[in-house]
Amino acid sequence: MSKIIDIKTSIVKIALKRTFTTAIRSTNHIDSLVVELTLDNGTKGYGVAPATTAITGDTLQGMQYIVNEIFTPVIKGAYLSDYERVLHQAFNRVMFNSAAKMAVDLAFHDLLAKQKNTSVANFLGAKNNTMETDVSISCGTVSETIQNIQNGVEANFTAIKVKTGADFRRDIELLKALDSEFNKSTKFRFDANQGWSIIQTKQFIEELNKYSLNVEIIEQPVKYYDISAMHEITQFSNIPIVADESVFNSSDAKRVIDERACNMINIKLAKTGGILEAKKIKKLADEAGIPCMVGCMMESPAGILATASFALAEDITIADLDPLDWVAKDIYNGYLTFNEPNIILKDNLNGFGYNF
What we know:
A hairpin with a 4-residue loop joins strand 2 and strand 3. The longest helix is centred in the first third of the chain and has 18 residues, at 98-115. Helix content is 39%, strand content 22%. The chain has 13 helices and 13 strands. Helix 2 (60-75) packs across helix 4. The strands form 3 sheets. A 7-stranded parallel sheet has the order 5-6-7-8-9-10-11. It has 2 domains: 3-117, Enolase-like, N-terminal domain (Enolase-like, domain 1); 122-345, Enolase-like C-terminal domain (TIM Barrel, Alpha-Beta Barrel). It is globular. The chain is α/β, with parallel strands linked by helices.
């Protein structure tokens, strides 16, 4: 039985090709924590997670402290085969800190797959290696947004996630411009990132219904904690409402399901703290007949690989995993291929297939 004998952490920064702006934040780089676990047979497992302070509250320094000082005493010396109990015990030592938990969870899954000489996707039960993603369009002026969407369409993306919520007047003006520039072959997903009020959300939906746009979803229109508002909007809207920041864990998922506060749940590993909790959310959603999509922070390709592996195993087909479009391809070409809009996991990966 393999035992974990060492844990190390390091920090990786990746430059973006262009600035990413939402209603919550703006950034031109990706900050990530890398967790390295070593087994007594020398096998190493790696997990990577982003520091998205505005959303999860995690900072790089805080993540390192949590892993090194809070999780390590539980994990070091533990047997890999006992991973579910070990992760449960470690993660229960501290509230929140979902990104730090994600990095550790993924390092465990990397080792578990390597022990079986297979990829993480196959270990989780995936039957294929390809999935389609949308492309996210940052908040900007109407003309900037139209141009960026046109660039996305020309790059073969069929689904476009439009960031809204920073300027409501601009959001309303944008609809008319979209209707005049694009036909129903382009699928739109609007993400307000908690930027609207109930009244604004209803106004946006009413305005949207004046046009013939092909709209798939409206994501997290109001504050994450306002579940009653999410319920009211979900009952009002003829367009599916997605809970994103309102759902970090399975308890959150149960609440929005019980209160009928969404039509879909966006699962992100940086919110759930990794794959184990993500699977619990998916199970609850399946039992309630509520579909799930997968999303991500602006995070490293290593994190995108982990989310794609989970999604392929869970037969989730709606994906917002486009940070690959924001970074240089040589960062990830050892384990992923990105043929816009398709993410393709490389064949014969051992674990996740990356090293640091």
